[in-house]
């Protein structure tokens, strides 16, 4: 279903969004018939409640959706989207006192409620359509929704249909749509071009490893997005148990999220020079798989002792980050489904990020609250640097002990981001474990909307 608002329609049914605390006053303003009907149905304006009110002839004359209480809204997001799923098919015109970011959030939530992943079977999303509310930037909200839909589609597609080749094809299609330049470095050419760790991680798969490099825009500050594209992760020779392997189609969630964000940026024609780097691999098992205790030399010359082949994401990102830093971007961001430790720390709903730049931290924190895309700052804690230094090589890809796993992974990546580079890393989950308003169970973008909102402040656009 297109992630777009319905065309303006005089026949669109008025949809009143009513706060639970204001319900009694609102009912008294509507007249006896409406109040009688809603009271008879037990309407209490709770989140997710929606009722169509008939006129004297039985034809629909309005709809009413519950907005819940302030406490209820604080415990979730996209209250209107919950009602959208409960409304019958039709076109609606929102009537509300909401303005500004609060109205934009609810309008976006409505569009996102229409998402469904229907590649393999019919999976209809909410069928009710909304006319763009007055006072919102409809084109911007649609661009955000379509970027999020791209992210979800890529993550939800199983690895049999979303390997390194298919991920490169998706990036190429996006580049073609927006007139971007793209290069895909594949297989043994990675060794010739000095991307040894991307090649080492991906060489055991029947799907050759790749580095996807996309450029868009010719004026403004340079923004480089680096996304982890591990299309499936067996764990390599340190093979995962079956229960841990079950969701590994989402291990390319970082690449899916940066492609969704790139789509938003290009659709909105932001005045910047965008670069997207995605190391696309499968971490598989065969006779030429990289091994525990191997020592790899990265693009920037640092040596890495492999103490767990299941800590492969940081290896492929390292080469891509080193390559991105050579272009001296004004801002470089990496996004990856990198560590279970991040999930233990903040759960699946928060997107933790690492930055030592106070301006970036402030901008992202504000933006996450503004656009209902929650993020949480984590520390590049320098005293833990010793934990990633094994002695036999410059770096250890999997420090023993299990402490601070997300922090040590972020510190590892920072070694490749280049001296003086303005760098921020996101350790996301990329998966909605249970259905919620505007977010069905499955792949989900995290941090992209907060970044989009924060970029003008961070880069001075």
Short structural summary:
The chain is of the alpha/beta class and 461 residues long.
Describe the model.
- This protein is α/β, with parallel strands linked by helices.
- It has 16 helices and 19 strands.
- It has two domains: 13-131, Leucine Aminopeptidase, subunit E, domain 1; 143-459, Aminopeptidase.
- Helix content is 35%, strand content 20%.
- The strands form four sheets. Strands 6, 7, 8, 9, 10, 13, 14, 15 and 17 form a nine-stranded mixed sheet that branches. The chain has a five-stranded mixed sheet with strand order 2-3-1-4-5, sandwiched between helices.
- Strand 14, helix 14 and strand 15 form a beta-alpha-beta unit.
- One of its GO terms (biological process) is proteolysis.
- Belongs to the peptidase M17 family.
- This is Leucyl aminopeptidase.
Helix content: 25-40%
Mean pLDDT: 96
Q: Main sheet, how many strands, which sense, barrel?
A: 9 strands, mixed
CATH superfamily of the largest domain: Zn peptidases
Number of strands: 19
Terminal residue distance: 33 Å
CATH topology call of the largest domain: Aminopeptidase
Helical element count?
16
Count of domain modules: 2
- Could you say what the CATH architecture of the largest domain is? 3-Layer(aba) Sandwich
CATH domain class name of the largest domain: Alpha Beta
Low-confidence stretches: none
Radius of gyration from the alpha-carbon trace, in angstroms = 24 Å
Derived from helix and strand composition plus strand pairing, the structural class reads: alpha/beta
């Amino acid at each position: 279903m297109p992630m777009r608002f319905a065309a303006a329609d005089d026949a669109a049914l008025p949809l009143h969004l009513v706060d639970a605390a204001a319900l009694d006053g609102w009912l008294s303003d509507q007249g006896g018939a409406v109040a009688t009907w809603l009271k008879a149905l037990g309407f209490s304006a709770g989140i997710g409640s929606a009722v169509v009110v008939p006129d004297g002839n039985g034809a629909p004359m309005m709809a009413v959706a519950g907005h819940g209480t302030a406490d209820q809204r604080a415990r979730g997001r996209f209250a209107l989207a919950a009602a959208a799923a409960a409304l019958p098919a039709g076109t609606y015109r929102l009537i509300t006192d909401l303005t500004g970011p609060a109205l934009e959030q609810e309008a976006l939530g409505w569009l996102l409620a229409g998402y469904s992943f229907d590649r393999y079977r019919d999976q209809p999303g909410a069928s009710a359509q909304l006319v763009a509310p007055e006072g919102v930037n409809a084109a911007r909200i649609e661009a955000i929704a379509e970027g999020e839909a791209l992210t979800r589609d890529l993550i939800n597609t199983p690895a049999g249909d979303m390997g390194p080749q298919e991920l490169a094809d998706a990036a190429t299609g996006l580049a073609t749509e927006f007139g971007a330049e793209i290069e895909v470095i594949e297989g043994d050419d990675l060794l010739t071009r000095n991307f040894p760790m991307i090649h080492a991680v991906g060489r055991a798969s029947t799907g050759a490893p790749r580095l996807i490099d996309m450029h868009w825009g010719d004026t403004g500050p340079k923004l480089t997005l680096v996304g982890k594209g591990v299309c499936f992760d067996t764990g390599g020779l340190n093979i995962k148990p079956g229960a841990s392997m079950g969701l590994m189609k989402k291990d390319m969630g970082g690449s899916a999220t940066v492609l969704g964000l790139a789509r938003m940026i290009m659709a909105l024609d932001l005045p910047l020079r965008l670069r997207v780097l995605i190391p696309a691999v499968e971490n598989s098992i065969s006779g030429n798989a990289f091994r525990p205790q191997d020592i790899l030399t990265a693009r920037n010359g640092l040596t890495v002792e492999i103490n767990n082949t299941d800590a492969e994401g940081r290896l492929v990102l390292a080469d891509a980050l080193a390559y991105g830093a050579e272009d001296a971007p004004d801002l470089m961001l990496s996004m990856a489904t990198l560590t279970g430790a991040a999930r233990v720390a903040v759960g699946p709903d928060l997107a933790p990020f690492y930055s030592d730049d106070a301006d970036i931290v402030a901008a992202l924190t504000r933006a996450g609250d503004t656009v209902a895309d929650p993020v949480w700052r984590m520390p590049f804690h320098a005293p833990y640097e010793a934990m990633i230094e094994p002695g036999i090589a410059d770096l250890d890809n999997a420090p023993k002990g299990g402490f601070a796993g997300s922090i040590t992974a972020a510190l590892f990546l920072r070694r490749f981001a280049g001296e003086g580079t303005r760098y921020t890393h996101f350790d996301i989950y990329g998966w909605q474990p249970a259905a919620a308003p505007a977010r069905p169970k499955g792949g989900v973008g995290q941090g992209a909307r907060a970044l989009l909102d924060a970029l003008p402040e961070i880069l001075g656009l």
